[in-house]
Design a protein that fits this description.
By secondary structure, the chain is of the alpha+beta class. It has one domain: Hotdog Thioesterase (Thiol Ester Dehydrase, Chain A). It starts with a strand and ends with a helix. It contains three helices and six strands; from the N terminus they run E-H-H-E-E-E-E-E-H.
């Protein structure tokens, strides 16, 4: 199942030409992942407080395909494509309407307070394994 997250491009997201600054796509997809985790019923603040576990991006492959501009409404579509005991790979794509603007393959890991890799929380691993698919 694909998670969808909509947002608007604000002036602060753009460069002098009025197009989205390349690094801001990473912010858009981060927000979408946070909402996906929240909607999956995982409270990241409680997870950190109770277990010391946090999520971190280990690797990202990104393709910039077309520019988003000031005041555009964009949609981030996210879907898990692979999951293991300690790693989750998600495909995330940013669209304006049906135009694909940006595509990324993001590898996430779960870390403890000392920065060591740990198993994904069971609830997240289960959700990722059962709803995997393409955006």
């Amino acid at each position: 199942m694909t998670h969808r997250f909509q947002t608007r491009v604000y002036y602060e997201d753009t460069d002098l030409a009025g197009i989205v600054y390349y690094a801001n796509y990473l912010k858009f997809i981060e927000r979408a992942r946070s909402e996906w985790v929240r909607e999956a019923g995982i409270d990241q603040r409680a997870l950190k407080q109770d277990t010391g576990l946090v999520f971190a991006v280990r690797r990202i492959e990104a393709d910039y395909l077309a520019p988003a501009c000031f005041d555009d409404v964009i949609e981030v579509r996210s879907a898990p494509v692979a999951v293991s005991a300690a790693r989750l790979v998600m495909e995330q794509q940013v669209f304006r309407g049906e135009t694909l603007l940006f595509s990324a393959l993001v590898t996430l890991v779960c870390l403890d307070a000392a920065g060591r890799a740990r198993r994904l929380p069971a609830a997240l691993a289960h959700i990722a394994a059962t709803i995997g698919g393409k955006p």
